[in-house]
TrEMBL record:
This is GNAT family N-acetyltransferase. Pfam families: Acetyltransf_1. Coiled coil: none annotated. PROSITE patterns: GNAT. InterPro entries: Acyl_CoA_acyltransferase, GNAT_dom. Residues 1-139 form the N-acetyltransferase domain. It comes from Sabulicella glaciei.
Length: 153
């Protein structure tokens, strides 16, 4: 029986995740250790204004979220956040950093920081694109690196 839902329970999600993790661990011979990561910008009262949140797993740091308020952009704060992420990834002994971004967000920012575009899905959302990026710390290019194409949407 296949049951469709717009709202899977946390237990249902966990059951699927546990099965995937077990399969991946068996296939790779390595247990997937996940360690959380954040590099946050705080105001004087300790409120979070923005920053990066992600996790390391399988030898890579994944930046899941990165946001800065409009007033903080263009001042080097995003670069400093990504430099802190890279320093932490290196401290953890990771191979590199990977992330995704929409064409209307920050692909040029990541390219200026040395990230290579790995792939693009056009019309996600319609009229735009999502891009996957990676930055490897050793001399080689990220595995499966796609040739860069101009035009983001």
């Amino acid at each position: 029986m296949i049951q469709l839902s717009d709202d899977p329970t946390p237990e249902e999600r966990q059951a699927v995740l546990d099965a995937i993790v077990a399969f991946n661990d068996a296939a790779t011979g390595a247990k997937a250790e996940t360690q959380a990561f954040s590099a946050l910008v705080k105001d004087e009262e300790g409120r979070t204004l923005g920053g990066a949140i992600g996790y390391s797993r399988h030898g890579w740091l994944y930046i899941e979220l990165l946001h800065l308020p409009e007033a903080m952009r263009g001042q080097g704060t995003g670069t400093r956040i990504m430099e802190a992420a890279e320093a932490e990834a290196r401290r953890r002994g990771l191979l590199g950093i990977h992330l995704d971004t929409f064409s209307f967000q920050a692909p040029g920012f990541y390219e200026r920081l040395g990230f290579a575009r790995m792939g693009t899905l056009r019309d996600h959302p319609p009229g735009h694109a999502i891009h996957w990026y990676a930055k490897r710390f050793d001399a080689g290019p990220p595995s499966g690196e796609a040739k860069h194409h101009s035009g983001d949407a």
